[in-house]
Predict the 3D structure of the following.
Amino acid sequence: MVTTPHAAATEAGARILRCGGNAIEAAIAAGAVLAVVYPHFCGLGGDGLWLVSDETGKTECIMGIGQATAHAAMLPDRLPLRGPLSAAGSAGLVRSWDTALALSRAHWDGTFRLAHLLDPAIEHASEGITPSPSLMHWLRFRQAEWPDWSGFAANFGIGAQGAADTPFRQPALAESLRAIACDGPEEFYEGALARRIAAGLAGAGAPLDAADLAATIAPRDAPVGLDVAGMRLLAPPPPTQGVTTLAIMGILERLGIAGINPDDPQFYHLVAEAIKQAFLDRPHILTTPAPDLLAPQRLDAMAARIRQDDALEWPHPFQSGDTVFLAAVDARGRAVSLLQSIYFDWGSGIVAGDTGILWQNRAAAFNGLPGHPQRIQPGAWPFFTLNPGLALSGGRPALLYGTQGADGQPQTLATVLSRAIMHGMSPAAALAGPRLLLGRGFADDADTLKIESSAGEATMAGLRTRGHQLSPIAPLNPLCGQAGLIAIDTTRLRGAHDPRSDGCAIGLE
């Protein structure tokens, strides 16, 4: 089974599985297509963070996170959110393909060449695709800004591409994908393509250079984990916020969320309050060992601070960001949970010269204050919102999950996982249920509790009596994330992608 937020990407991954490929190979094929059809959320100029597990439950992370330029000392203390200076970090996605394929060949009997896996992406970039509603929304949403972004209009501008029903072609990106398919991931970091990328970024005023590209790594690492409701939930280690997602679920188990109807206002109240407690702890992720943050006594204390009938003020500033989640399970039960991102929608806005590659703005997540744990330094990783998830049951992969949404990722997963794990809902039902989001949104600067109106007036009235300041939003609102789930047991696979997305799951006999 494969699940992604775009049907073309899901089909690309399913095609590899039909031909006998493994979950890693299917994920690369699907992820490459997403880099073409969802360029507003991910791409070759961004990152990829993986959780991979074989059928025995041996799980590893692949940390495809771009590192800060070696010229970090020349940058201002505060980087802008867009533009060339925000492109001060390298891109880890393509390097993560190299790491993942090496693991596939060494331990998963992988046989597919990267060139074959990239074929669908090259075809979609060259021949064009019908723009998705999500793509058109984000083009229009940023239309007042992108005329000032270097190279953007020529590659993505509505005027350059024609009407919404005109095939959306990216010939320059197709050529870059062909170069990687022909010469491998090293072409992106040390070959002729790398030199064109570096020249294009330099021409736009970005500080990243060829040496920064060549120094990019995507190492393997061990996940962090927490036992919740009879399952072992796994997440990537810091600098990701994976610990935050695990802490929320640990708090909710202590609050007895399994015994509260998901339609009850108390369900939403406890989810919101657990999120607040975990976010209060999030600043410690970079300075405190993950096991200490997930220690039973620490989670006990956070759960004890929650008032059953009174809302705490939202304590955390909003961080924007956009991402795509995809997952794959192969015939032997080996599993991949993967998030790809360029940080904000459209990343830095900078296209690297004539390559068609839009560069991320993840470096804007650094904090420039002297002595701050997130101060930008050569080769450093920024704080990272991506946290794909994987749960083991009986020592074997049982659930794959993840979502788009920066600060919203742990929040979306709190409701989705509570429904799926604590209440036994199917993936489709868990994803379709109403959601909440704390803090500011793209079109709302108020630190309120956003809740989809499908939760019902009785639920919203109950939340108001508990002190929540509500901002109702439309049902199935993409503001609340675009999540995916695959549930694995011994007899079947069940999966779905968010009805808030353009995607789907495809299962094979």
Summary: The mean pLDDT is 93.
